Amino acid sequence: MILTQRLSKRFEEVHSRREAALIGYLMVGEPELSRTLDYIRALESGGVDIVELGVPFTDPIADGPILQAAHSRALGQGVNIHTVFQVVRELRKSSEIPILLVTYYNPICRLGEEPFARRCSEAGVDGVIIPDLPIEEAVSWVNQARKYGLARVFFVTPETDNERVQKICEYASGFVYLVSRYGTTGPSETLAPTVLPLLERVKPLLPGDLKLAVGFGFSTRTQIELVVRAGADGVIVASALAVRVAEGASPEALAEYIRELKAGTKHISSQIL
Questions:
Q1: Distance set, CA 66 to CA 43, 46, 62, 97 (Å)
Q2: Residue (of 60, 119, 115, 58) closest to 87 by Cα position
Q3: What is the number of structural domains in the chain?
Q4: Pairing mode, if any, of strands 155-156 and 151-153?
């Protein structure tokens, strides 16, 4: 299906340029709903390869204070899953950048897995990340996502043993989301000590068609360079973008910050080419 192909093609494109993918996050409704599309376009113009769009929720348990505040601001504007689909449809009029929704399971459950997956496909969403859906409860969702050509992104944490990693690989497509540290989301100036050993352990366990993207805590070019050299296929930046948007950064300033981060993806070691 075209949706899965769009995501896979993007990873192939960045790999052919000797880069890793830069994946940027924006909560739908930030900094206000009328300007969200401008900020998504700023991410793309700055060099983001894949965009994650947050679906606001009342109890975002995996998110730290910065993203929790973004959820609250979006909910205060009345943003919901239907708003998110509308934003994606509007974006698709001018952009083919791969789009992933980041949503907790409750909005999916309320709409229904099949209607949700179908509407994702119709709007032009390429995949879905569900932080609170463990693989033990994901069979039904995985089947619907496969039916509609959606990438299925699951998490691997420092506590995930190798047997579970292999099970996650059976359910996942597109990429596996490697959580670099313990705790919730939030920017950091230093690289978590858990991330490089975790990357070294998990990377060989993945089948060749499944990529590995690392997230939680990334905010600097140096951090990105380190994990890319260690073999990451992609790096996810979320809270560091959210805090800049919340502080009033213009689309142009956000794009400039993205260009600095993107430069860190261009130092791939020969061992993973």
A1: 19, 22, 12, 25
A2: 119
A3: 1
A4: unpaired
Give CA–CA dist 123/55, Å, rounded: 14
Which residue, 221, 214, 166, is CA-closest to 192?
214
Token pair 């292999």 is found at 166
d(Cα 241, Cα 250) in Å, to the nearest integer?
Answer: 12
What is the CATH classification number for the domain harbouring 85? 3.20.20.70
Supply the range of the domain harboring residue 153: 2-272
**In contact, 45 and 250? CB cutoff 8 Å:** no
Active-site residue list? 52, 63
> What pTM does this model have?
0.93
Contact 211, 174 (CB under 8 A): yes
- For residues 229 and 268, the answer to whether their CB atoms sit within 8 Å is yes
Nearest to 67 by CA among 49, 77, 53: 53
The 10 Å CB-count burial string (b at 16+, else e) for 34-69 is eebbebbbbbbebbbbbbbbbbbbeebeebbebbbb
The amino acid that residue 160 corresponds to is: T
pLDDT per position as a tens digit, 183-223: 445 556 667 788 999 999 999 999 989 999 999 889 999 99
